[in-house]
Amino acid sequence: MYWRLLLLTSLVTVVSTVRLRSDQPTKDWWEHAGFYQIYPRSFKDSDQDGIGDLNGITEKLPYLKDIGMRGFWLSPMYKSPMADFGYDISDFRDIQPEYVTMDNFRRQVAEAKRLGLKVILDYVPNHSSDEHEWFLKSAQRVAGYEDYYVWRDGKPNPDDPSKPLPPNNWLSGFRGSAWQWNDERKQFYYHLFTAKQPDLNFRNPKVVEEMKEILRFWLDLGVDGFRIDSVGCMFEVLPDENGDFPDEPLSGTTQDVEDFAYLEHIYTIDRPGNVEMVYEWRKLLENYRKEHGGDTRILMTESWSSLDIIKPYFRDIRGNEGAQMPFNFRLITELNATSTAYHFKNVIDSWMAIVDENHTANWVLGNHDRSRVGTRFGERRIDGMAMVELTLPGVSVTYQGDEIGMTDVDITWEQTVDPAGCNEGRENYAAKSRDPVRTPFQWDDSSLAGFTSGTNTWLPVGPNYLQVNVKVESSNPKSHLNIFKALMELRESDTFLYGDWRTIAFNEQVFVIVRDLPSSSTYITVVNLGNSVQIINGSQLVKYIPKALSYAIVDGLSSHNIGDSVNTGSIKLQPYEAFVLEAKRPADRMVRAVICDRWLNF
Questions:
Q1: Residue 33 burial (CB < 10 Å; 0-12/13-18/19+)?
Q2: 51 with 97: CB under 8 angstroms?
Q3: Could you give the CA distance from residue 376 to residue 337 in angstroms, rounded to a whole number?
Q4: How far is CA 51 from each of CA 57, 439, 599, rounded to the nearest angstrom?
Q5: CA distance 18 to 16
Q6: Thinking of the domain 34-124+328-485, which architecture would CATH place it in?
Q7: C-alpha span between 92 and 90 (Å, rounded)
């Protein structure tokens, strides 16, 4: 008994003077990282042509460091005819001239490494441009390239035998048939996206190896990982004995026969080969690290599918590891301005249910394809949504401009350039165009928001740039930008790195996230999603909570200040108010909690 008491006394002495962070599990660099998505065309223009470029990005890398980012993901900057603004790639190993040169990219990587920032590239394996050398050779049936793409004969056309009909009813995501006739080859090719983006044939081993070589090429240039575009689209169903593909069934959701939603895409989306390919790429990255050393290289995968489809992208039952970060888009697809606290809890908890203890959660609140946070949830909820995303466990991904509260910009039909909008026509373009979320980044209140020193921009600058910009917000302690920075800093504390989490729907309006660590403070994120005043009892949220809490972070319109205290039993929230509260655990309780943990595990 004496030796146990002696050990207990020793533990008290140690614990009372040391925060036991070293006892926590070691996290890899990416597991608690904040990543920033850069849409190169719209981030910063350095050469006055109104189009963002790599030198502009390099110039602004210190900004990413300043707001707490660990890495950044570059949307495609490869050589491209720009039919889909970079996602139609004509050379996977070169830089689009508008974005300058490969030497500029090398300088960008070097500057990023100097600043301690990781570089993630968009990897687009599903398709190339129809101007790519591979497609030109495939159309000519050059030996070795015949099957680089998905080619099929057409069906006889009884009305005009000289104009064959598409092989089946498959549709493009950009309207109309997914089959395009090629007059040179006298066959149709499959394109899930625009006709300028023919799908590569991943059932051809040569294509598989070619795309692996592209990964190795960019790894050799020092990149730290890849975001895999449209990962669920790479494989189509196997053709039948006649080489034909079956028609896809009708969805019953629309009568528009050219709308992608007209069909249920059981033969073209989420085929088993997609995830198997990701396992191969993960092995490639692991082997590259073994051969060359350095930090872990990571994979992010883009799939908008259901949770049961996404879960295997982490790992399968055989132990094959996939992406470190299968993107979690549920904050985008499942939540909006009408969502209740119960919706928030269900969406977040259901995602966490597929993330086992060996993997890490991630949270994506916006990107270049979906309406901005401030537009989707309402400008009054911008800070609250940042608090939700950045106080949850794991990795965050922020789309450029969301940290300063940029909103969708009204784009006229004449200004529209996105093919997703253009293909819909003047009457319906606004419903599908992604241009409103891709407008130039707002750096300051000078002409054209400081995006360029030229006289024009490829898309119009948002009209709110005089108030919503980095320069103005930097000097306002309660701006969206400074609240975002404070949240990013808070994420580096022990509680957020190692602590437990739980979500609470206090009622329909009030959503709560609790982050707790026995050896540190407890933090409580409280968000009023509705337009009425709410009063909650904090003692119902956390056991052994002190009688008073302090405001660690408050939203921009809150009347409270950081450091103010609030009675735990009566926490009042104004409409749409959000804040993070800190429950400081007394030193003696911290000691008891840690000793108890050590004693139970002794």
A1: buried
A2: no
A3: 6
A4: 12, 11, 62
A5: 6
A6: Alpha-Beta Barrel (3.20)
A7: 7
Residue of 303, 322, 118 lying closest to 225 (CA atoms): 118
Domain boundaries, the chain: 2-24+499-600, 34-124+328-485, 127-199+237-269
Set 229, 403, 408, 555: catalytic member = 229
3-state per-residue secondary structure call for 479-522: CHHHHHHHHHHHCCCHHHHHCEEEEEECCCCEEEEEEECCCCCE
280 catalytic residue (yes or no): no
Query: What element of type H or E holds 220?
Result: helix 205-220
Quick one: CATH architecture of 2-24+499-600?
Sandwich (2.60)
Query: Is 153 one of the annotated active-site residues of the chain?
Result: no
Taking 80 as the threshold, does the pLDDT of residue 38 lie above it? yes
Which residue is it, tokens 């050896």?
Answer: 519
d(CA 482, CA 404) in angstroms, rounded, equals 9
CATH top class, domain 127-199+237-269: alpha beta
For residue 13, give every residue at least 6 positions away whose Cβ sits within 8 Å of its Cβ, in sequence order, or none.
none
Cα(112)–Cα(72) distance, integer angstroms: 9
Secondary structure (3-state) at 352: helix
The first and second tokens of residue 466, run together, are 């005089």
Cα(552)–Cα(542) distance, integer angstroms = 17
Q: Which residue has the tokens 């790479």?
A: 234
The answer for residues whose C-beta is within 8 angstroms of residue 525's C-beta and 6 or more apart is 387, 388, 391, 512, 513, 514, 515, 578, 579, 580, 581
* pTM check: above 0.85: yes
- Of the residues 302, 389, 555, 577, which is catalytic? 302
Residue range 317-371, pLDDT digits in tens: 999 999 999 999 999 999 999 999 999 999 999 999 999 999 999 999 999 999 9
User: Residue 301: CA atoms inside 13 Å, Cβ hemisphere, count?
Assistant: 30
Nearest alpha-carbon partner for 235 in 276, 181, 264, 281? 276
Find the length of the chain: 602
Compute the average pLDDT of residues 29-33.
97
* Tally: H helices and E strands in the chain: 18, 21
Please give the single-letter amino acid code of residue 480.
H
Distance between CA atoms of 71 and 424, rounded to whole angstroms? 36
Long-range contact set of residues 177-184: C-beta below 8 Å, sequence gap at least 24:
178/268, 179/152, 179/154, 181/154, 182/139, 182/151, 184/139, 184/140
Q: In which element (H, E) is residue 588 found? A: helix 587-600
Gap between the Cα atoms of 81 and 90, Å rounded: 7
Average pLDDT over all residues of the chain: 94
Mean pLDDT of 411-437: 97
Structure tokens at 8: 């207990």
How many CB atoms sit inside 10 A of residue 251's CB? 13
> What are the φ and ψ backbone dihedral angles of 200, each rounded to 5 degrees?
-70, 155
Q: What is the pLDDT of residues 576-593, one digit of tens each?
A: 999 999 998 765 454 444
Answer whether 187's CB lies under 8 Å from 152's CB. yes
Structural tokens at position 259: 């709308």
d(CA 341, CA 511): 5
- CA gap 317, 309 in Å, rounded: 14
